[in-house]
Amino acid sequence: MSDHGEAAARAGRPGAGVRQETGGRVSDHGEAAARAGRPGAGVRQDTGGRVSDHGEAAARAGRPGAGVPQDTGGRVSDHGEAAARVGGEDRKAELAEALAAVEARIERACAAAGRRRDEVRLLAVTKTFPASDVALLTDLGLTDFAENRDQEAGPKAEEVAELRPEARVRWHMVGRLQRNKARSVVRWAHEVQSVDSIRLADALAKAVRAQGTPPLAVLIQASLDADPARGGCPLSELDALAGYIAGAGGLDLRGVMAVAPLGADPAEAFARLAEVAVRLRRDHPGATEVSAGMSGDLEQAIARGATCVRVGTALLGGRGLASP
Ligand SMILES: *Cc1c(COP(=O)(O)O)cnc(C)c1O
Questions:
Q1: Distance in Å, CA 127 to ligand 1 centroid
Q2: 291 is in which domain, residue-wise?
């Protein structure tokens, strides 16, 4: 068992870690915070605003000093930089402004495509950003968050659960995943969007069954550029993978995901993904999700039928050169 499973157990959550819904409503939380006269977790008034919400919340949660470093296995610098960049109040305003701009883009794209806004889910891709940012985004009403590395996401999901125990939070895995991480991922992820092989699907199905939790929502990541290095299931193998997932106890096939190929026209790539999605739905009527579109191309994705956009940079800011 990994550290984070043990930590989840220590934190009094059931074996499944953070996968269960808390049943809490975001609005309850926001109202409570508002009644308390301060945003978010906030003891900030008496600290002169130099300490981030995150550090304080972590300290209240019984961890020393600046919070996370000891138990997160080497993400200290990412976290430290991000925490230093942000102060709770300023950061919340910055995120609120970015969220409003992204929302406006999604609304315009839906209107242009003759689609309803509620046909498109917004996933905030929070990789490399601290749990305190996720907490602030939950205060702003977001519920769905995506990560691409198990070792970063597991501890972050736990931290968010400590920072915002009332918030309804759903975590989505969108990154390349090795089979040996399956047991760890199913503890924090509500959905895995990056299933691209039968071997991985099999490992996830086994992990879910071992954990004894309800079926895990999965999307098949389709490769639109036939470049195996970038992940994704080749289109020629997609039907076989879908059939395998549908028959494997423990997995719930919800649809497809793709990343537009580098240097190609995203509209053309998303049109091909839409065809793949239609074909998949013929055999698997429940597989209705089409996850496509990121900060740079969400309009094209929505125009081609995306039901889910994954937005990192436009919401949270740049990740720097070293980050994925
Ligand atoms: C990082 C990432 C995103 C978000 O990309 P942005 O361009 O920062 O919006 C979306 N999908 C996947 C799979 C990612 O890894």
A1: 9
A2: 3-17+24-316
Query: Where do we find the tokens 């003759």?
Result: 114
Q: Let me know if residue 283 belongs to a domain.
A: yes
Report the alpha-carbon distance of residue 268 to residue 153 in Å, rounded: 32
pLDDT per residue of the chain (324 residues) written in tens, 0 to 9: 344 433 333 333 333 344 444 333 333 333 333 333 333 333 333 333 333 334 333 333 333 333 333 333 334 444 445 544 556 789 999 999 999 999 999 999 999 999 999 999 999 999 999 999 999 999 999 999 999 999 999 999 999 999 999 999 999 999 999 999 999 999 999 999 999 999 999 999 999 999 999 999 999 999 998 777 778 999 999 999 999 999 999 999 999 999 999 888 999 999 999 999 999 999 999 999 999 999 999 999 999 999 999 999 999 999 976 545
> Does 289 fall in a domain?
yes
173 lines ligand 1 (CB under 6 A): no
Q: How far is the CA of 297 from the centre of ligand 1 (A)?
A: 11
CATH code assigned at 148: 3.20.20.10
pTM (2 d.p.): 0.76
Give the separation between CA 107 and CA 150, rounded to whole angstroms: 32
Residue 43 lies in a domain: yes
d(CA 210, CA 240): 24
Ligand 1 close to Cβ of residue 178 (< 6 A): no
Q: To test ligand 1's pocket by mutation, which of 148, 191, 270, 298 has the most ligand atoms within 8 angstroms of CB?
A: 148
Instruction: Indicate whether residue 311 lines ligand 1 (CB < 6 A).
Output: yes
d(CA 32, CA 278): 44
Task: Report the number of distinct structural domains present in the chain.
Answer: 1
